[in-house]
């Protein structure tokens, strides 16, 4: 029954998505179709409604709307330019200075805003003029911008990690946040290495002259209030001063005050930000609620156990099992957004990795890292297409450069997958594991 239910869910979900049904409705409908073979329609519908309510009524879920609002306030609050100036002052002497600056600023702004697409749009727009003046290849700039933007999704505060915590049954958000730093930095460093190598081949040099400590000091002071958001929120959560939900509310207040001080947020723009954040939050929270139906159906029909038995029947080697999972997640990520993919694959794969002793925190970073690659992979690849649009280039011109970035990012994925200390080192040092 389990395999039959899984086939029904996969086929129904695929058909519904192809005909244009929104992902949240598609998940709910396909789940109900699968359960109808064992549970009557009236009971299925009532139970499904109950599961949606239960899934949406978790207090910890409140953190997601607050972080979305804080991110949107940051997007409008004049943060990007200050971060670009800071990274340029710090890394501007490296070959391909503007490319390296793009990577570093994307990692910082993506972490603060919580959106890879927002980072690609905001930071890409800031560095575009300088890249054009210095004769940089537009396709290379677009590829660098797109490839590096998802790094910020791994660096906390991260809505993807909060979503995984809920899907995994309450894995510590503080541990996940700390675990995200090193994988996120690895992603950014991988992109920087590729950018420097290509820049050297093309003869793109860094800024002339000696390192300017005064300029770095000025840029640091200007960026410090923005960077402090990460320190305040993450430091408070990890230090046990407040919960992730309380930290998200503090992030909203901090971002609002900062935007007002920078004079980039007015009463009218604040209202528009709140409305847009409410729309985004409604979609995400409803999606999480509907995915609870899928979780119930999987548990009732014992789909995770069947998949676990099938995988372990092929091989009991953890290295091969993780490799198979990575391939599945990479393929799925090219067609699905991060949030629904987390909600679907966590209950499928988490029980399997637990059988050979993997910590849920490490698996969470493997899962999110994989799915973030889907942000820059056609045919969906929202972040990649935003970067192409901002960079005024085309997919055919950008893809040859993207292949080099994909290779470097995949090396990072293998490190995160097979070296537990990369994900678990910081949480263990902090006593969270």
Distance from N terminus to C terminus (CA atoms, Å) equals 37 Å
Number of helical segments with 4 or more residues? 21
Number of strands: 0
Biggest sheet overview:
none
Helix percent band? over 70%
Low-confidence stretches: none
Series of secondary-structure elements, N-terminal to C-terminal: HHHHHHHHHHHHHHHHHHHHH
Q: Approximately how much beta-strand content do the residues carry?
A: under 5%
Structural class: mainly alpha
Report Rg.
22 Å
Shape: globular
| Mean pLDDT over all positions | 86
Provide structural commentary.
The chain has 433 residues and is mainly alpha-helical. The chain is built from 21 helices and no strands. It has helices spanning 2-18, 23-35, 41-56, 63-76, 79-91, 97-113, 116-133, 138-148, 151-154, 159-167, 173-202, 213-238, 244-261, 267-301, 303-314, 318-333, 338-355, 360-373, 382-390, 395-418, 420-429. Helix 5 (79-91) crosses helix 12. It is globular and about 75 Å long.
Question: Quick recap of the structure?
Answer:
With 433 residues, this protein is mainly alpha-helical. 79% of the residues lie in helices and 0% in strands.
């Amino acid at each position: 029954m389990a395999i039959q239910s899984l086939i029904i869910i996969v086929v129904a979900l695929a058909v519904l998505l192809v005909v244009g049904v929104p992902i949240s409705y598609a998940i709910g409908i396909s789940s109900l179709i699968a359960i109808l073979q064992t549970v009557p329609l009236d009971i299925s519908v009532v139970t499904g409604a109950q599961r949606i309510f239960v899934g949406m009524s978790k207090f910890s879920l409140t953190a997601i709307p607050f972080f979305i609002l804080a991110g949107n306030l940051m997007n409008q609050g004049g943060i990007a330019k200050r971060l670009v100036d800071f990274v340029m002052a710090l890394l501007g002497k490296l070959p391909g200075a503007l490319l390296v600056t793009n990577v570093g600023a994307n990692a910082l702004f993506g972490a603060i805003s919580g959106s890879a697409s927002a980072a690609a749009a905001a930071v890409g727009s800031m560095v575009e003029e300088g890249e054009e003046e210095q004769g940089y290849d537009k396709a290379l700039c677009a590829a660098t911008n797109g490839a590096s933007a998802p790094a910020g999704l791994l660096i906390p505060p991260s809505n993807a990690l909060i979503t995984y915590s809920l899907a995994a049954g309450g894995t510590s958000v503080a541990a996940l946040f700390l675990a995200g730093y090193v994988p996120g930095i690895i992603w950014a460093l991988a992109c920087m290495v590729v950018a420097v190598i290509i820049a050297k081949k093309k003869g793109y040099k860094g800024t002339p002259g000696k390192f300017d400590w005064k300029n770095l000091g000025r840029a640091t002071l200007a960026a410090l209030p923005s960077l402090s958001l990460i320190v305040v929120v993450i430091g408070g959560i990890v230090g046990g001063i407040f919960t992730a939900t309380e930290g998200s509310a503090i992030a909203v207040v901090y971002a609002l005050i900062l935007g007002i001080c920078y004079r980039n947020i007015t009463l009218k723009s604040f209202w528009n930000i709140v409305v847009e954040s409410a729309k985004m939050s409604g979609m995400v929270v409803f999606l999480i609620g509907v995915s609870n139906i899928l979780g119930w159906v999987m548990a009732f029909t014992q789909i995770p156990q069947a998949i676990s038995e099938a995988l372990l029947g092929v091989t009991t080697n953890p290295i091969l099992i993780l490799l198979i999972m990575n391939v599945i997640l990479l393929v799925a990520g090219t067609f699905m957004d991060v949030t629904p993919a987390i909600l679907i694959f966590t209950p499928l794969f988490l029980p399997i990795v637990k059988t050979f002793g993997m910590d849920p925190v490490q698996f969470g970073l493997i899962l999110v890292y994989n799915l973030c690659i889907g942000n820059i992979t056609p045919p969906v690849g929202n972040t990649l297409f935003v970067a192409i649009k901002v960079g005024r280039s085309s997919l055919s011109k950008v893809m040859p450069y993207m292949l080099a970035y994909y290779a470097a990012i995949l090396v990072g994925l293998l490190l995160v997958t097979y070296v537990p200390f990369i994900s678990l080192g910081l949480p263990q040092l902090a006593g969270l594991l």
